[in-house]
């Protein structure tokens, strides 16, 4: 047998083996678990959103439920080779998965795990079958990192009706995902506690975000989201976003935050953007193809 014949014969055998393995049933594929994160890089204390897809390949209906205080859905998270233990237990409601169907569950990881330390993390989802003695199923591994943002504006204020409370407001920018993101950060200064880290969205760096306070000590943030459009968000001392509105650049230049003597904060120098009204106006403008025919002499 020549070398060429030998190689051809070997390749034929390998192809046959691969085909057999591909058609063999997978013993541990009763549940297929897939894990996705909303992005790969997060700012410290930003909500880390995880989505778990669970597909039932068991050939029968499967019910997942908590057993003996143990949740049916769990996560294995590690940093620098060390496991991150849950800061508080989380229980999930029971779920029934029909044959061949997929269910989706979304979880905020740092509501149960302490992930406020900068670094690189690895995460896997783990689903426990209800039958005693049966092993669980794990998902793919997903990596993410946690980093600090950059402070572009900050202010300390009191809380109306709570004389002993002091809040710290910050506007933070973060550029870990190939774009610049803006966050509103609220802390209890006297208690040294986190209140909220609120994503305000992607911004552009032509103009630095600005902040001010209204008469109720709410934080108002103005930031540029497009060359001709600015966002205006209001955040309470409790870390709740009251509203976000958008303004287009007016004839007087860039919009700006203005506080009146009454304590009200408004955006001056801009035009309030109403997407519904703008779309209606756009529909009124007829296309060139819709023009009636003309007769030219």
Task: Describe this entry's structure for a reader.
The chain is built from 2 helices and 22 strands. The chain is mainly β and 297 residues long. The strands form 6 sheets. Strands 2, 5, 6, 9, 10 and 11 form a 6-stranded mixed β-sheet that branches. Strands 16-17-18-19-22 form a 5-stranded antiparallel β-sheet, with no helix packed on it. Strands 12-13-14-15 form a 4-stranded antiparallel β-sheet, with no helix packed on it. The longest helix has 21 residues, at 3-23. The protein is globular, with a radius of gyration of 28 Å. Mean pLDDT is 85; it is low at 3-28.
Tell me the total number of β-strands: 22
Please report which band the strand proportion falls in: under 5%, 5-15%, 15-25%, 25-35%, 35-45% or over 45%.
Answer: over 45%
Q: Name the overall outline.
A: globular
Q: What is Rg?
A: 28 Å
The largest pleated sheet is described as:
6 strands, mixed
List the helices and strands and how they pair.
Elements: H1 3-23, E1 31-37, E2 41-43, E3 49-56, E4 62-64, E5 73-79, E6 82-83, E7 95-97, E8 102-108, E9 119-127, E10 137-138, E11 142-147, E12 150-159, E13 162-174, E14 180-188, E15 193-203, E16 210-213, E17 219-226, E18 229-235, E19 241-249, E20 256-259, E21 265-268, E22 270-272, H2 275-284
Parallel strand pairs: 2-11
Antiparallel strand pairs: 1-3, 3-8, 4-7, 5-6, 5-9, 9-10, 9-11, 12-13, 13-14, 14-15, 16-17, 17-18, 18-19, 19-22, 20-21
